[in-house]
Target: Helix-turn-helix domain-containing protein
Amino acid sequence: MRVGCGRYRWVMAADQRPLNEVVFLTVAEVAAVMRVSKMTVYRLVHSGHLPAIRVGRSFRVPEQAVQEYLRESFVGVETA
Model:
């Protein structure tokens, strides 16, 4: 469950782990994991589909958020 907190900021409400245990990925790392361009990751962050925190002028995305996004976005193929 995600709770909105501002236009582009999201707080993970269900799985509250101590921040020192959260693994944050750069936009480039997320793009490599998802095999998409960095611009696609920026679009996901700015649209609110992928939660991120801002560090200076950069974004950091929790690794768990990437895994959840991919799990929720999976499209299964039905067989006849």
The longest helix spans residues 63-73. Residues 1-14 have pLDDT under 50 and may be disordered. The chain is about 35% helix and 20% strand.
